[in-house]
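Let us begin with a simple case.
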Amino acid sequence: MNQATGIENLVTCRVNHCHGAQAVSVTFRSGFKFSYSGDCRPSKDFVRIGQGSTVLVHEATFDNDMQSDAEAKKHSTMSEAIGVAQAMGAKRLVLTHFSQRYQKIPQLSALDKININFEDVEVASNGGEDVDMPEGSGDIGSTIISPTPPQRRSTDSLPTPSTGSEELKIAVAFDFMRVRVGDIAHLDQLTPVLQRLFQIVEKEDKFKAQDNSGEMARRKKDESKSKRHEQLKEQTRDANAARAKEG
């Protein structure tokens, strides 16, 4: 399989999300290293197995001001994903899996102070049968998930992220996006254009919503007027019928 795929090592670790959730790091014989988080809270174990990644794809479901939502739903914020990338020493970071409940283009600014809670799954020593690790990988390879619910194991402060860093280059992913590794460093140049595009789309959607709201109000007014007209016609018919009966 190694010869067919060029994979030298494929390493996984448990992460704090749903039962059985894992992150993976793949190293190729060429030296290229790719790490993928899946849905999870920031994981110290993932930082260890992904050390020196060429490309890290990390979920950033929630914006920075939705920290409590991220913790409650076991996802990561954008700042947390960037912090993991820096702790991992990744050269390229692709942020993905954004919630539709906030702006479509995450803001890569105001990242001055970030304190990240690493929330690894509690584990117990058991010979490594539940975690696929290469030989010589340390204590992670001799752990399995425990039957107890995941808990925060420690709180650590990571280095302050800097989007202008010479080392870490950050890109924002979209569904069905295809990008060359060498182009990731340049994708941030498209962010202002994409932000402007989405502002225009959101503005148009707002106008449409207002138009629809006004149209619904007009329809209700017309329906109310028509109903009153029908009531008056019915009252007139009843009055004419009553006079005819009296005559």
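The second case is a distinct protein. As before, the sequence precedes its structure tokens.
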Amino acid sequence: MSTDSIALLRKNAGQDIRALAQEHFKHDLQDSDRDALTSAAGKISTHLTVGSALGLALGAFLAFRLRRTRMQMFNAFRAHEKPTHVKFADGRE
């Protein structure tokens, strides 16, 4: 089994596909189709950028919130009064 049979391992597959797509884009499409594809590509890029930024911001916010909550719980347990002696049920200490 050669490495060319797995698409991920091909070295020049992206360039070949890009060149083929450019040829189709130039010759096989009408002007309105080209404009629609260009517009759609721009919208997708914008949506992906905004989504990535929102995902990173939300992830950072939740990480800091979780860290703060864990710190508060740790401090609450640490500040809790520690026993200094033991008193048994029959009254002896």
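DSSP finds two helices and no strands in the chain. The radius of gyration is 31 Å.
Keep these points in mind for the review questions at the end of the chapter.
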